[in-house]
Amino acid sequence: MKWILIYYRGMATPVHAMMGILGVCVVAFSFAGALGGFMEKFTFAVFFLYGIFLFYCAFFSGFLVVANKLEDHDPKRETLIGLSYVYQGVLISLIFVMTWWVLSTFIGKATNLMITVSEPNENIIRELEKMTYGDIEYDGFNLELTKQSVELELSGFISSVSILKKMIEYTGSAPAKVEMKVKSGWVNSPGYKFLENETVEILLDIDSSMAVRKPYLNGCYIAIPILSPDISTLSRKNVIVYPQHDYSLNIVEGLELIVDGVSMGEEAFIEGGDLMIKSFSSDTYRPDGRISYCVSQIVRNGRKYFTAEQYRYYSSDVFAKFVFPSLAKYLMDYEVTTRKRIRSWGRFQYHLRSGFEGLFI
């Protein structure tokens, strides 16, 4: 306790003493987070610097204590006072900015979504959970009634409502028609029983579709299990994605995918028993193994800086019919409002980093 008393007396005010103690605690927390594995390197750097700023702001206030012990005419006295005010002025400005940054990042936005549907059912909620990648709380539908509204409290935030708008405009009666055609030269390959240029319709288990958390090539994808035809015997190509993780994909070869008569090109492929269709803003893995969003590198003057979130939009018309058929068929109207919420630790770290990366965009 003696060193605490000495430290307390060495500070200009009790506020500075508490600031220094808080700085030490923040630095200790940053090291605990780094060693414990629950803190990313960028978050560690932010908290470490924040703690250092707090500690040294308190430390430089001690110059005033030393200056007050000197004679009024001593030249060192004014030098110490001047240095103390300069250092504290710079550090307090940085502390205010970082305090605002950290606290504002902890407080995020979430969505309240009032939807009106023609035929209420539980699948509609499940589809919306796929869209928002989070749980949804609601009072429930009266399944004996039709055309009713219900307010949903989402755990996340809808950044774009274009897909919802397209669902309301949807006039079809079924999901998008998906077909595959054997490419020239593959017709006589083992496992291929299809004729050349013959289109074979794919039956999908759309209710089991999900945003995959795997490093699928160059984008984020939604995986939809294929019910028929049986593609288990078709030739596959083993594609190495990240050599350092020894992770590879078993992509079915020799097929051309067609959605509503339009060839998909590289927007979709078949991996194992799933149809992989390029999605927007779903989670994926980075080469270092950490979970991130679809990312693109920020390059300025030939130098690589950070990575930032980017959206890879699929055709919204097909997306509504293909990935969210229940919503597209039954959604009649919606109203979006936002509310404040405290983000989880993982989401806090993501927004802390992406907010800084945004300075370079």
Helix and strand arrangement:
Elements: H1 2-10, H2 14-36, H3 41-68, H4 75-106, E1 107-117, H5 122-132, E2 136-137, E3 148-154, H6 162-169, E4 178-182, E5 199-201, E6 203-204, E7 210-211, E8 221-228, E9 236-242, E10 247-252, E11 255-259, E12 262-263, E13 268-271, E14 274-278, E15 283-285, E16 291-293, E17 295-300, E18 303-309, H7 316-323, H8 325-330, E19 331-342, H9 345-357
Antiparallel strand pairs: 1-3, 1-19, 2-3, 4-5, 4-11, 6-8, 7-8, 8-14, 9-10, 11-12, 13-14, 15-16, 17-18
Into which percentage range does the β-strand content fall? 25-35%
Mean pLDDT: 77
Estimate percent helicity: 25-40%
Order of helix and strand elements from N to C terminus: HHHHEHEEHEEEEEEEEEEEEEEEHHEH
Shape: elongated
Q: Roughly how many Å apart are the termini?
A: 50 Å
Overall structural class, as computed from helix and strand content, comes to alpha+beta
Please give the count of helices.
9
Question: Which ranges are low-confidence, i.e. pLDDT below 50, for 5 or more consecutive residues?
Answer: 281-294, 308-313
Largest sheet: 5 strands, antiparallel
Radius of gyration: 29 Å
Number of strands: 19
What does this structure look like?
By secondary structure, this protein is of the alpha+beta class. The chain is 38% helix and 28% strand. It contains 9 helices and 19 strands. It has helices spanning 2-10, 14-36, 41-68, 75-106, 122-132, 162-169, 316-323, 325-330, 345-357; strands at residues 107-117, 136-137, 148-154, 178-182, 199-201, 203-204, 210-211, 221-228, 236-242, 247-252, 255-259, 262-263, 268-271, 274-278, 283-285, 291-293, 295-300, 303-309, 331-342. Strands 6, 7, 8, 13 and 14 form a 5-stranded antiparallel sheet that branches. Strand 9 and strand 10 (247-252) form a beta hairpin. Helix 2 (14-36) runs antiparallel to helix 3 (41-68) and helix 4 packs across helix 9. The longest helix is centred in the N-terminal third of the chain and has 32 residues, at 75-106. The two termini are 50 Å apart. 26% of the residues are buried.
